[in-house]
């Protein structure tokens, strides 16, 4: 599995421009086969623009040709020609060009529909919007609600795929921890298994015809 910068967008391009199998695309992009099939059917990554891995230096035409000729062949990522430059930490709110600001409600709607585990503050910080706008989109009181369509923020140019994947991963991990803590809090002593109760009853009934008393009954449950 190659480490692709924008896996879903790359998968969209490969599906649209090559005859590679779903398995080959899934393996190269690090996605599940069913997820790739969903992209091909239009159920996943709806409205997402494809990213050409050839122009991005992640794949060569020769590799694609090999994969198209042999469905068992697994594509290999091209060696990077430049050193990876880490992105600097941002301070303060994200600046969004005026031309892109009208797209923010679409990105918010995408989070609400596809990733409800991502909190409002996380959405606000990632795409540079306000909590009030998120609330308005959520309860459909936004002034442009009729025209809002869920579109992922990467496609809209509001963030990078790396930033999106990171925030979703953090939100999922946090949700798992919260759910685990809730399960621990709700767990309590359970009832004795039915077979234990039956065994205790048989032990009492097996006494030599003697009529059981309270001590006999409760002693059978001890231990």
Question: Describe it for me?
Answer:
- By secondary structure, this protein is mainly alpha-helical.
- Among the domains are: 7-69, no CATH class; 98-186, no CATH class.
- The chain contains eleven helices and no strands.
Spell out the blueprint of helices and strands.
Layout: H1 7-17, H2 22-29, H3 33-41, H4 61-69, H5 98-101, H6 104-114, H7 120-127, H8 131-138, H9 161-186, H10 194-205, H11 214-219
Helix pairs in contact: 1-2, 2-3, 6-8
Shape field: globular
Helix fraction, binned, reads 40-55%
Enumerate the spans where pLDDT stays under 50 for 5 or more consecutive residues. Answer: none
Structural class estimated from helices and strands? mainly alpha
- Rounded average pLDDT: 79
Summed up, what is this model?
This protein has helices at 7-17, 22-29, 33-41, 61-69, 98-101, 104-114, 120-127, 131-138, 161-186, 194-205, 214-219. With 223 residues, it is mainly alpha-helical.
């Amino acid at each position: 599995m190659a480490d692709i910068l924008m896996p879903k967008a790359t998968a969209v391009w490969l599906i649209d421009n090559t005859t590679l199998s779903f398995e080959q695309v899934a393996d190269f992009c690090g996605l599940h086969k069913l997820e790739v099939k969903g992209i091909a059917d239009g159920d996943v990554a709806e409205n997402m623009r494809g990213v050409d891995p050839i122009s991005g230096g992640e794949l060569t035409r020769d590799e694609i040709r090999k994969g198209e000729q042999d469905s068992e062949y697994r594509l290999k990522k091209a060696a990077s020609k430049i050193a990876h430059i880490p992105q600097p930490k941002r301070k303060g709110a994200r600046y969004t060009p005026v031309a892109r600001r009208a797209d923010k409600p679409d990105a918010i709607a995408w989070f609400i529909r596809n990733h409800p585990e991502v909190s409002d503050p996380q959405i606000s910080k990632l795409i540079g919007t306000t909590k009030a706008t998120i609330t308005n989109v959520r309860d459909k009181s936004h002034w442009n609600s009729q025209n809002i369509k869920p579109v992922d923020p990467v496609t809209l140019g509001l963030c990078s795929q790396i930033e999106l994947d990171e925030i979703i991963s953090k939100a999922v991990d946090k949700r798992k921890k919260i759910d685990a803590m809730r399960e621990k809090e709700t767990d309590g002593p359970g009832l004795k298994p039915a077979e234990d109760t039956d065994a205790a009853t048989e032990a009492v009934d097996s006494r030599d015809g003697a009529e059981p008393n309270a001590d006999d009954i409760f002693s059978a449950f001890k231990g």
